[in-house]
Design a protein that fits this description.
By secondary structure, this protein is α+β, with helices and mostly antiparallel strands. 58% of the residues lie in helices and 11% in strands. This is Efflux transporter outer membrane subunit.
């Protein structure tokens, strides 16, 4: 009888529509193109590509999977691969996702009856002097019971189905949060790595400058002995040499910090971890940008905000369901006897079936307030979703403009370095010929070093901006990777 009743109720529920609004994704019209992909160059770059990216038609060369492999750096690849298996922050995000996913099963269980069973044995001894005791009644007897109970609240109004829907959308949002943590960790490691290699490029420049200045000091000391230079020239050469040596030592502070950050992200034991000296000599890859409408599917933070909006919409239905009656079904059955011989026989059977319906008649406006609250929370989350989209487009545009401007600045700085090198060579020749003082050589050398360090700094900033552009585009992720 319980099975027939439950089957009929389930069939009835299958045709019942859950109360509350069905979800429709908040509308957003993406622009046709990014502003920066068509921005004119202030200074024409040395190559025809306007920046280190290329516009792309849908799915044309889009980044997939291990996006850091576009840099063709085996050492970077090795470090990045450790994040997936060793990073504790990523593991924390994974466990948070799994905990949220379990909530679906917790909520979905309320769709089904709850069944319980029990076995009992009790021995009674009655008082022979109790009031109204029947003459000749036994003072000792056993009570053996075995039975079960079924209780069920059919989801006539869809409250539980809305709870399952909310839990499912929240789980997908948590999965997107996990993907976002993964993207941020990989991009942070790549950015730190390229900045470290940029510092190694500066070390290379400073070491070459130190070698040149040591040669200049030796030359000046020999000219002093020959009577064609002064003590002032030697002092200036010595000062310049020690100044550059101090700069070389100072670069080591930042390099050590980047090395520690990389080792921590890759979960190495820092005392045993080091990155060998490796100046930045890679070719900056072109990043496929795609079309703006793809950004809504490629950014995990946008996906998370959208799924949270869907979960907030389901919570409106949960609040509305409180206006409807609560209906519950219950049944019990089993066997009860005084000894084992008659315990499981037909006459020892017992059962009961029942139903209850309850409706809240007055709550001083609580249900209305909770429903209005759920609607406002949905509108707030929808606004947060759209705001996340706007910030994402700004993020992409910022990094596109950064790459474009750095590309132009690098072209100008290359010419500045070439000019400073030529000026230094001329000044050095004039000094050796006795046509000028050593101050002119020092000035030219300082200008050359400044421009060389600026150029190496620009190169590392270009790589860091390239990584940030990939991060802004969502890396190799898209919404098809969300759990179903």
């Amino acid at each position: 009888m319980i099975a027939v009743l439950a089957g009929g109720t389930i069939a009835l529920l299958a045709g019942c529509k859950p109360v509350g609004p069905n979800y429709n994704k908040p509308g957003f019209t993406a622009p046709d193109t990014y502003k920066e992909t068509g921005a004119p160059s202030i200074t024409p770059p040395p190559n025809p590509i306007n920046g280190s990216w290329k516009p792309a038609s849908p799915s044309d060369g889009m980044l997939r999977g291990n996006w850091w492999e576009v840099y063709n750096d085996p050492q970077l690849n090795k470090l990045e691969e450790r994040i997936a298996t060793n990073n504790q922050q990523l593991k924390q995000a994974m466990e948070n996702y799994l905990a949220v996913r379990d909530q679906i099963t917790v909520v979905r269980a309320d769709l089904f009856p709850r069944l319980s069973a029990g076995l009992g044995f009790t021995h009674y001894k009655q008082s022979g002097n109790k009031p109204l005791a029947a003459p000749g009644a036994h003072g000792n007897y056993n009570d053996l019971t075995i039975g079960g109970q079924a209780t069920w609240e059919p989801d006539f109004w869809g409250k539980i189905r809305r709870q399952v829907e909310s839990a499912r959308e929240s789980t997908q949002a948590s999965a997107a949060d996990l993907a976002n943590v993964d993207l941020l960790l990989h991009s942070e490691l790549a950015s730190d790595y390229f900045q470290l290699r940029g510092l190694d490029s500066q070390v290379q420049v400073l070491k070459q400058t130190v070698a040149d200045l040591e040669h200049q000091l030796d030359l000046t000391q020999r000219r002093l002995k020959g009577g064609v230079a002064t003590d002032v020239d030697v002092a200036q050469a010595q000062t310049q040499l020690e100044t550059v040596r101090a700069q070389l030592v100072d670069v080591g502070v930042a390099r050590a910090q980047f090395e520690h950050a990389i080792g921590t992200l890759a979960t190495y034991n820092l005392p045993d971890f080091s990155i060998p000296f490796s100046p930045l000599d890679l070719k900056l890859p072109q990043v496929p940008v795609g079309v703006p409408s793809q950004l809504l599917e490629r950014r995990p933070d946008i996906a998370s905000a959208e799924r949270q909006t869907a979960a907030a919409n389901a919570r409106i239905g949960i609040a509305i369901a409180a206006y409807y009656p609560t209906i519950s079904l219950n049944g019990t059955g089993g066997f009860e006897g005084t000894h084992g011989g008659t315990w499981l026989q037909g006459p020892s059977a017992f059962w009961s079936l029942g139903a209850q319906a309850a409706e809240l008649l007055f709550d001083a406006g609580q249900r209305r307030a909770l429903t209005d609250q759920a609607r406002h929370q949905y509108e707030a989350q929808a606004a947060a979703y759209k705001n996340t989209i706007f910030n994402a487009f700004q993020d992409v545009e910022d990094n596109l403009s950064t790459l474009r401007i750095l590309n132009e600045e690098s072209a100008v700085e290359q010419r500045a370095v070439a000019s400073a090198q030529h000026s230094y060579d001329l000044s050095n020749q004039r000094y050796k010929a006795g046509a000028t003082s050593y101050l002119e050589v020092l000035t030219a050398e300082q200008a050359l070093l400044t421009n060389q360090r600026t150029l190496t700094d620009l190169e590392s900033r270009q790589f860091a901006a390239s990584v940030q552009l990939i991060r802004a585009l969502g890396g190799g992720w898209d919404t098809t990777q969300l759990p179903k």
